[in-house]
TrEMBL record, chain A:
One Gene Ontology cellular component: plasma membrane
TM annotation in the entry: 6-28, 35-56, 62-83, 90-107, 119-137, 142-161, 188-208, 215-234, 254-277
Localization annotation: Cell membrane
InterPro entries membership: ABC_transp_permease, BCAA_transport_permease
Keywords associated with the record: Amino-acid transport, Cell membrane, Membrane, Transmembrane, Transmembrane helix, Transport
Name assigned to this protein: Branched-chain amino acid ABC transporter permease
GO molecular function annotation: transmembrane transporter activity
Record family assignment: Belongs to the binding-protein-dependent transport system permease family. LivHM subfamily.
BP-aspect Gene Ontology terms: amino acid transport
UniProt source species: Rhodoplanes roseus
TrEMBL record, chain B:
Protein name (database record): Leucine-binding protein domain-containing protein
InterPro entries reported in the protein's UniProt record: Leu-bd, Leu_Ile_Val-bd, Peripla_BP_I
Record-level GO BP terms: amino acid transport
Domain Leucine-binding protein: 37-388
Signal peptide positions (record): 1-28
UniProt superkingdom: Bacteria
Assigned protein family: Belongs to the leucine-binding protein family.
Keywords (A to Z) from UniProt: Amino-acid transport, Signal, Transport
Pfam family, one: Peripla_BP_6
Automatic annotation (TrEMBL), chain C:
ABC transporter domain mapped to chain residues: 4-234
Key words, A-Z: Amino-acid transport, ATP-binding, Nucleotide-binding, Transport
Entry's Gene Ontology BP terms: L-amino acid transport
InterPro entries named in the record: AAA+_ATPase (IPR003593), ABC_transporter-like_ATP-bd (IPR003439), ABC_transporter-like_CS (IPR017871), BCAA_Transport_ATP-bd_LivF (IPR052156), P-loop_NTPase (IPR027417)
Protein name (database record): ABC transporter domain-containing protein
Superkingdom field: Bacteria
Homology family: Belongs to the ABC transporter superfamily.
Length: 291, 401, 235
């Protein structure tokens, strides 16, 4: 039993991070109908900024959580303004390709400026672990699971009930209708990118002590976030969170009870099964009859 | 004959004469050797994921060549380095061909790890250019034996494997059960095969778990080790993989494990991942870890002066090997008695005994290398290292089994 | 000041001009009907005025200010609201949420209180928590008009509000639009149905093939049967 507990906790830890990564991806897609493949690179920048704050400048750890999400959000909003706005009239394919190469450019720029394999960042909490019936749970693990899930849920509430969230949902639902309500496309898109970037930055701060900062982080988070998003239905924020948790826990269980070499392919197998069985994802948005 | 025909005949003679003069130079000159210079070519990755091997490779070589040239060079000539960036197999082969066919280098150094060495292997055997494999552990470059290919500090996996296992028994430790945690990609798999062969031959009971490249979650593997009461773990992978595996093991309450790491994971950068890394063991390819004694400290100071500032995680294994190996090449050139032909050079190299930097006034940061006509592996020794107070140090030299 | 004065408005899709050199004026308190056969460019004209379609040329003066270069959201914020032909609602929004969303356009002015909208359309109050996508066609049209009214418009553009509605519902809709007109909000109504046009409009402008074909008072238009001539091309 304790062994199963360990496996589930580890799955939930990665799952919570996947959820956060998926959430930012879904927020941007929902409001702007663009899949931002540079999302993983934004998260990597967030993790790198975390290294600078915590290790390089030795500032208090909480500052990483407070400063980095808005900072990466601003970077994302600027990129939307400078690169994607001129492409707004181009077809979807052009925009998606632009984000793919933007992600590669950011990763390679990081590699060139910081030519190192990996930067290690310590955890926020280093105290004694909790033991629940033989299951070890470190304070860091608990913080990642609880912190990431609480913040993700807060985002869902903000998106569902907040004024800015309403604007993004209106834009997602009907661009012309949203404009007739006074929502500016430019402002809503920019804000969606800001929010998506901030969530990528936050995912970066959470993942830095868990995975370290490396170029591979960018790929790891975009692929996990993408799979989690698709499993959840891609336009559903709740789905993104549940999809992330499901992916993390499935990976962990498969590695423990099927084969450790099975871990990487399980995510794609899961994706395949979900798409075969429910092409709309596990938790799709309620779709009312077309108006 | 009309006038035009005379002219044409004269022109033809002129062209033929011109061709003949280029085909038969006044004095035969070996490729890469001029009256003032000897050109050495090298390949390695300067950007991309393998840059942590190729960049120190270039820097270590350049530092050694600067020192040698400041003392007047070899055989009255300066040594010149043509370093080509190459990270993929295709780039590596193209870079090697360019160095051999266009730059006509006297000797070729593969500072590219196994990937580049494997890609260049067939070609260098075929053209016969004197080749020094600095970092490649792959059998593709090592077998079959070739009289123009030499190997330096990196020992064959059959030598590394017993060395790794021997560290489980250091200081009277008696492992109950050994767990082997190996990456599924090429480099750890090569070592794994040798390790398994050795463990089976010694009739040691072990448990095997695998992980994918750049893995960060080792829970399932560690839980499996816990189930099988493993008290000693060998990790075959990179420092980041090893670091996160050990960090996670502690989070899962697995303390009191003897950890032994493959050479690829023995790096300063593993310490901040784990926090308190004391007691973790592994092998190093040089006799002393950076910072451990005055020779390595002096080396670090020289490299820092040369580079301006010291990049993160440097100097590393690859800086030290590249520096030491460059002196070995210089010594082989000197051993020709300055008859700078390829045959003399290969003969001189094949008879080097305990070659290394001190003989030419450098710093002995690598193990001395010896070669014979039939054995082109220069070094068989390893430094057994352990983390003490957050710093790696070599505590004994593992000799050839 | 004249609520709306459009001059030289040209709208084109690629090389094809949907509206050519249109001019029209709406005076305070008046309802102007834009008549014309299918494909005459009526919808293109009002969408261009509201900023949903780009304008090739022309000026749009809204209470003396040229708004031709503004985006749709900026125009509605100035107080020029459009009830579009396809309603453009948000299927997953409740009725109340839809109305709340539109208060955005009235920031800095005063949004119309929701109870005033509900007083005008009691059925919307009954269905306030229902999703827009689950409403009937007539209810959706009321919601679309209610959404435009929340923005507290100084001018209301209505693009064929009766399209696809049962005649009973259409009749009550006409009464509501007349009440809006009489409350002092000038109206530009796009309509094909002469009966509705006559009930609401004071003046009318007729479009044919993107160009102005005839303009005059509603009564005159009916008397001279201008509509038939425009519709059947008897110039």
């Amino acid at each position: 039993m304790a062994e199963l507990g360990l496996v589930l906790i580890a799955g939930a830890k990665f799952g919570a991070i996947y959820a956060l990564a998926a959430l930012g991806l879904v927020v941007v897609h929902k409001a702007t109908k663009t899949v931002n493949f540079a999302h993983g690179a934004f998260a990597m920048l967030g993790a790198f900024a975390s290294f600078l704050v915590v290790v390089h400048w030795q500032w208090p750890y909480w500052m990483a959580y407070v400063l980095i999400p808005p900072l990466i959000g601003i970077v994302a909003a600027l990129i939307e303004f400078l690169i994607l706005r001129p492409l707004r009239r181009a077809d979807m394919f052009t925009v998606v390709i632009a984000t793919v190469f933007l992600g590669i450019a950011l990763s390679e720029a990081f590699r060139l400026t910081y030519n190192t394999e990996l930067l290690a960042v310590p955890g926020m909490f280093v105290g004694m672990p909790f033991i629940f019936g033989g299951v070890f749970v470190t304070q860091e693990t608990l913080w990642v699971i609880v912190g990431a899930l609480v913040i993700s849920s807060a985002c869902v509430v903000l998106f569902r009930y907040g004024r800015l969230g309403r604007g993004m949902r209106a834009m997602a639902s009907n661009v012309r209708g949203a404009q007739l309500c006074g929502y500016s496309v430019d402002r809503v898109y920019m804000f969606a990118w800001f929010l998506g970037g901030a969530m990528a930055g936050l995912a970066g701060v959470f993942v830095a002590p868990v995975s370290g900062v490396s170029v591979e982080l960018s790929i790891a988070l975009i692929s996990a976030g993408f799979v989690a998003g698709v499993i959840g239905g891609f336009d559903s924020l709740k789905g993104a969170i549940l999809g992330g948790l499901l992916l993390g826990i499935t990976e962990s269980l498969a590695a423990a009870y099927i084969s450790s070499a099975f871990k990487n392919c399980i995510s794609f197998l899961l994706l395949f099964i979900v798409l075969m069985w429910r092409p709309e994802g596990l938790f799709p948005e309620k779709v009312a009859r077309r108006v | 004959m009309r006038r035009g025909s005379y002219l044409r005949a004269a022109l033809a003679i002129g062209v033929v004469a011109g061709l003949a003069s280029t085909a038969a130079p006044v004095r035969a000159q070996e490729p890469g050797v001029s009256d003032t210079e000897i050109t050495i070519g090298a390949i390695g990755a300067l950007t991309g994921p393998l840059a942590f091997i190729g960049t120190p490779g270039r820097d270590g070589m350049t530092l050694a060549l600067n020192e040698i040239n400041q003392k007047g060079g070899v055989c009255g000539r300066k040594l010149k380095l043509n370093y080509e960036h190459a990270s993929t197999p295709a780039e590596s082969l193209a870079a090697v061909k360019k160095l051999v066919e266009q730059d006509k280098v006297f000797a070729l150094v593969l500072a590219s790890g196994s990937t580049g060495a494997a890609a260049a292997a067939d070609y260098v055997r075929q053209v016969g250019v004197p080749t020094y494999n600095l970092y490649g552990s792959t059998p593709i470059i090592r077998e079959p034996f070739s009289k123009n290919v030499f190997h330096g500090a990196i020992v064959p996996v059959e030598v590394a494997a017993p060395g790794l296992i021997s560290m489980f028994y250091d200081e009277g430790h008696k492992p109950q059960k050994i767990g082997v945690l190996a990456g599924t990609y090429a480099f750890p798999q090569a070592t794994l095969k040798a390790v398994e062969d050795h463990l089976k031959a010694q009739k040691v009971d072990y448990a095997l778990e695998k992980f994918d490249q750049s893995a960060r979650d080792f829970t399932s593997q560690l839980v499996s080790f816990g189930r099988q009461k493993v008290d000693s773990v060998l990790i075959l992978g990179s420092f980041s993989e090893a670091g996160f595996a050990i960090k996670q093991a502690r989070e899962l309450g697995m303390t009191n494990i003897r950890w032994v790491l493959d050479g690829s994971a023995v790096s300063r950068a593993i310490v901040p991942i784990i926090g308190n890394a004391d007691g973790i063991r592994g092998y190093f390819n040089n006799p002393a870890f950076p910072g451990q004694n005055d020779t390595v400290k002096e080396f670090e100071a020289r490299l820092k002066t040369f580079l301006g500032s010291m990049p993160q995680g440097r100097p590393n294994n690859y800086d030290m090997i590249a520096y030491g190996s460059t002196y070995v090449v210089a010594e082989a050139i000197q051993g020709t008695g300055c008859q700078l032909t390829r045959d003399k050079f290969l003969a001189s190299w094949s008879s080097l005994k305990d070659a290394g930097p001190t003989k030419m006034g450098g710093l002995d940061v690598s193990f001395p290398e010896s070669f014979t006509e039939t054995d082109h592996q220069g070094n068989y020794r390893l430094g057994a290292t352990v983390v003490k107070n957050g710093e790696w140090q070599v505590y004994r030299v593992i000799e050839r089994p | 000041m004249t609520p709306l004065r459009v001059t030289g408005l040209t709208v084109s899709y690629g090389r094809v001009a949907a509206v050519r050199e249109l001019r029209l004026t709406i005076e305070a308190g008046e309802a102007l009907v834009l008549l014309g056969p299918n494909g005459a460019g009526k919808t293109s004209a009002v969408e261009a005025i509201a900023g949903l379609l780009p304008k090739r040329a022309g000026t749009v003066e809204f209470f003396g200010e040229n708004i031709a270069g503004l985006t749709a959201s900026a125009i509605v914020r100035k107080g020029l609201a459009l009830v579009p032909q396809w309603r453009e609602l948000f299927p997953t929004f409740s009725v109340e949420e839809t109305l709340l969303a539109a208060t955005t356009a009235a920031q800095g002015r005063d949004p119309k209180p929701l109870d005033q909208i509900y007083a005008l359309f009691p059925v919307l109050e009954e269905r306030r928590n229902q999703l827009a996508g689950s409403l009937s066609g007539g209810e959706q049209q009321m919601l679309a008009i209610g959404r435009a009214l929340v923005t507290n418009p100084k001018l209301l553009l209505l693009d064929e509000p009766s399209a696809g509605l049962a005649s009973g519902i259409t009749r009550s809709l006409i009464q509501t639009i007349i009440r809006i007109r009489d409350s002092g909000v000038p109206i530009l109504l796009v309509e094909q149905n002469m009966e509705i046009a006559r009930a609401i409009g004071n003046r009318c402008t007729m479009l044919a093939a993107g160009s102005l074909a005839w303009e005059g008072s509603m009564a005159e238009a009916i008397e001279r049967n201008e509509a038939a001539r425009v519709y059947f091309g008897e110039h």
